[in-house]
Write a structure and sequence with these properties.
Pfam families: YaeQ. It is a single chain. By secondary structure, the chain is of the alpha/beta class. It has four helices and eleven strands, in the order ββαβββαβαβαββββ. The strands form two sheets. It has a six-stranded mixed beta sheet with strand order 3-4-5-6-7-11, with helices on both faces. A hairpin with a 2-residue loop joins strand 8 and strand 9. The protein is globular, with a radius of gyration of 16 Å. 29% of the residues are buried.
C-alpha cells in the first residue's frame, strides 16, 4: 500500500522590504512521504521569496516536484502557459538545470544542507553559461532551525530586509541570510 502525502496548512504574512511586497497567503502544502520537514519548509520559504506582487503574469504555485521529474517544486505560468519561474529546492543536476533554463524565463534554486558546497563545486562550471539561472545557498543550521517551525497548522511571519530573512511563528524565530552562488546575467 502506497503512503499518502500529509497535508499542511500555512497562513503566511510576508513583509519583503527589498521588493516592497506586503501580502498574506493561505497555503496548502502536500508533504510527500519521502520529504523531510526541512525540505517542506524550504519550499515554503522559496514561495515567500518568489511570490509576485500580482497575478498579471500568472500565480506562483506548488508543482509536483518530488512526484514528477518533469516538474519543479514551484512554478509560475503566464496565461499562455509559458513558464515564467521554475523554482527547485535541493541540489538538482546540471542537465536538469539546463533543461529548466531552456523552458523558463527565470530558474531559481534554493540549495540547503551540509553537502551544498560539494554539489556546487561539481556543477558550477557546467551551469555558469546559463544566463537565467539564480542559485542560493541557505546555511545548513538555518534550514534545520526552519524545520523546527513545521506544524500541520502554521501561522508564520516572514520578513525580508537587505538580504536578511526572519521567519517566526510567534514563539520562535529563525534568522537566515542566504548566499548567492550564481546570479542571472541576462533577462530574456
Amino acid at each position: 500500500m502506497a503512503l499518502k502525502s500529509t497535508i499542511y496548512k500555512a497562513q503566511i504574512q510576508i513583509a519583503d522590504m527589498d521588493r516592497s511586497l506586503y501580502a498574506d497567503h493561505s497555503l496548502t502544502l502536500a508533504r510527500h512521504p519521502s520529504e523531510t520537514d526541512e525540505r517542506m519548509m524550504m519550499r515554503l520559504l522559496a514561495f515567500a521569496l518568489a511570490v509576485p506582487a500580482d497575478t498579471d503574469r500568472g500565480a506562483l504555485e506548488f508543482a509536483a516536484g518530488l512526484s514528477d521529474t518533469d516538474e519543479p517544486d514551484l512554478w509560475q505560468k503566464d496565461l499562455t502557459g509559458a513558464l515564467v519561474q521554475w523554482i527547485e529546492v535541493g541540489q538538482p543536476d546540471d542537465r536538469r538545470l539546463a533543461k529548466a533554463c531552456g523552458r523558463a524565463e527565470q530558474v531559481r534554486i534554493w540549495a540547503y544542507g551540509s553537502s551544498t558546497p560539494i554539489w556546487w563545486q561539481s556543477i558550477a562550471g557546467k551551469v555558469a553559461r546559463l544566463s537565467n539561472l539564480e542559485v542560493w545557498q541557505v546555511p545548513p543550521e538555518a534550514s534545520r532551525e526552519l524545520a523546527a517551525l513545521a506544524a500541520r497548522g502554521m501561522q508564520l511571519q516572514i520578513t525580508v530586509q537587505e538580504g536578511q530573512i526572519w521567519v517566526g511563528n510567534g514563539d520562535h524565530s529563525v534568522a537566515l541570510e542566504p548566499v548567492a552562488l550564481q546570479r542571472p546575467t541576462a533577462r530574456r
